[in-house]
Amino acid sequence: PVSCQVGPAVRAHAQVGGMALGEDVLEGHLSQHLGLAELAHLQGACVDFKRALDRSGAWFRSVSATLPELDIASELLKTPLQRRQLTGCFPALLQARFAEDMQVQISSPEDAESLAKLVRSAHRAASMHSANNGGATCVIIAKLRFPIHDLERAMEEEEDPSSTACCSAPITFTISKELGGALKTTSRRLELQFGWLQGALLVRMQDAANTTSPQLEADAILGPSGEALFNRDCGGPMVDISVRDPSFTLHQRGGMAEMGGAWKSMGGGLTLVHKDKAAAYKALARGILCWVCVREGRASKGRHHLSMHPEFVHALHLDMLPSSRPRW
Fold first, then answer.
1. Per DSSP, what are the bridge partners of residue 25?
2. What is the spatial distance between Cα 317 and Cα 247, in angstroms, rounded to a whole number?
3. What pTM, to 2 d.p., does this model score?
4. Is the pLDDT of residue 146 over 80?
5. What count of other Cβ atoms lies within 10 Å of the Cβ of residue 244?
6. DSSP secondary structure letter of residue 266
7. Any idea what DSSP says for residue 220?
8. Is residue 309 over pLDDT 80?
9. Please, which domain of life does this record's source organism belong to (predicted)?
10. Pairwise CA distance, residues 130 & 110, whole Å
11. Structural contact between residues 103 and 145, judged by C-beta atoms closer than 8 angstroms
């Protein structure tokens, strides 16, 4: 993008023959090269620039170009008041990494703030892992989506040999070279998939570029005699997932994924239905925003002294806090 140095010369050109800066200049030329920071500087240069920007679609185009994963309603950027309501969300949103082919609809300032909170939560978890465990980490914003026809039966806690398994839509994303080395893959693209079986969440991961990898079908979650494959004995990459929705909350971490291998249980965590099960199933069928963390598997350095349920402590990352002797 062209850096905009706003000075007296630029202000002088704001008026040509007594006419204010034309909207056609903004629409056809300047707005194609100005980022969010440049537009803010230009708006403060003089009253004529500010008026021209307010009448143009420059703000909407700049935000759309900077954050292509967001489908922001143009009405939210038309007035200075509306733009100020979104300004506080931009620092977090600009740091977000999204899964491939991801589109998040932003229809209100509340939608933007909700997404920003999700991004901040993801970065806090990643920072905590880096500080305590070290190792490579990748955090992405994704949508957790399941086909609704098998979802209800798969999420029920029933030990039945004929249990129905339900697999999510694949989540594809790019990882760093460092994390790729830790996962022993030369690919920079991974494909992650979650599954429900007998009320438990499972996970599987594969190289997105490896076309010979077995397909992640629902039947693959079950063994030859119909038993669930909940083996968590292997080492390797670890997966965390966090979902916050008005109808459904899910916090599970420490799933021991295996590159191109069998399904693995995500282990302990929190799964809460806030309203009714039907609403939660519908939300998961539409797709719920979540953050997913893939990290190099290492043992935790800290031990907690909290007399809470271990799964609750684990889900909230409290067992990642530095060990200390309790004070009375």
1. none
2. 23
3. 0.76
4. yes
5. 16
6. -
7. G
8. no
9. Eukaryota
10. 30
11. no
